[in-house]
User: What shape does this take?
Amino acid sequence: MNISDLKPGSRVHLMGICGTAMASLAGLLKELGFEVTGSELNPYPPMSTQIEQMGIQILKPYSAKNLHQENSSGNPIRPDFVVVGNVISANNEEAQELVRLDIPYTSLPQAMGDIMIAHRQSIVITGTHGKTTTTSLAAWVATELGLNPGFLIGGIAKNFSKSFQVPKGNYFIIEGDEYDTAYFDKVPKFLHYKPKHVILSSIEFDHADIYKDLDAVKASFFKLMGLIPKDGTLIYCAEDSNVEEVAETCHAKNKFSYGISRGHYRAQVLSVTEKSTKFRVSEENIQVGEFETILSGEYNILNCTAVIALAHSQKWNMEKTKAALASFKGVKRRQEILGEPKGVLVIEDFAHHPTAVRETLKGIREKYKGRKIFAIFEPRSATSRRKVFQKDYVEAFMQADEVLIMKAFDQSKIEETDRFSSEELVHDVFKAGKPAKSFSSVDEIVKSLAPRVDSGDLVLIMSNGGFDGIYGKLIQAIEA
Assistant: This one.
């Protein structure tokens, strides 16, 4: 039985519902008329908030009992179908009960391919960096052009206030992750997304918990290239040698590169202020147009250029594309301003890979000229908790004026010899000439920093998790 065989009103249960993509699927299914429940170990915002606002029940923690709920009359009911997230292992008791009960199940990417993308034109946006912002941009442009796309984003785009949309037109725009699908389906997620048009932004080594080296990462993208049909489109970054190597294997008729110093489509930054960045895009030295965005940093201008290249190659209206980029409000947790207590600007970002940390700080430095920048970082992702990028982070933090490093999140399942060291990073950053200190708790960071910041300073908090509520705690402490 496939999820596409279900009729509206069927009960679908999502294991790992607070993941960004799973929460989006929950919303899509609910809007299609399904009864949706989900389970999670520790629900966390912004996805838990989005789920609760949709009236979807989150059962916690994972348990066999979650598959034995009762209806309002007290009668036992079981799910008709289950979608299993990639955070679930085969020995999870809820997963084992699922198998014992013989309830049909699938992975999130398979469900998306079957029920949402189906026969629509799939626009897959992928790469090590920039996926969420670029997907949000593309979804907003397509929406403003009246194409009525469906979308799934790995974050909450502010223009939509949600991370998903049921398609009414012929396009589905989806963030294509190279992370694996589920314990029973160990392939990259994007291989299930039926790619017709692809934006490929970057390829670097990441996800050290599932990929052994860069060649293994590239192998997954080679497979993606093989899925793009000849009448499809590939938009790829010309300034990334790994991307160029992979792109060469794509047999799509329409292949266009983009960049700043090279590429079929090239961007030229005209001005940068705290309010916006203005830039020009040309195609083979012929001007496509001048554009404006609230986004900052070279990497974000590349993200914008990729979407402009897609729109131009698809012959979408460029004046409407220009207006859509100008009205794009950004994505939660991507250079998101949280507040300015007593004149101290507090910004949150999702950056965790050293390249993302470096480029985020570089963009912040360029946009907010003259401000003293305090960079707070939590090594939380599967890769950042490992020592694979131990030395790379040193250079990444050089754009900050002071660096505060939290101890790495739960390293209990990582071999001691393979663990990232916050203390070693602080030592190396200090040696390179930047004030730096490591901390074992959020409260220590807040206690250390709040009394020392002055009006005009900027605090950038980087984590891909909840970071023990540091955002509200720090703002409250500064105000106090």
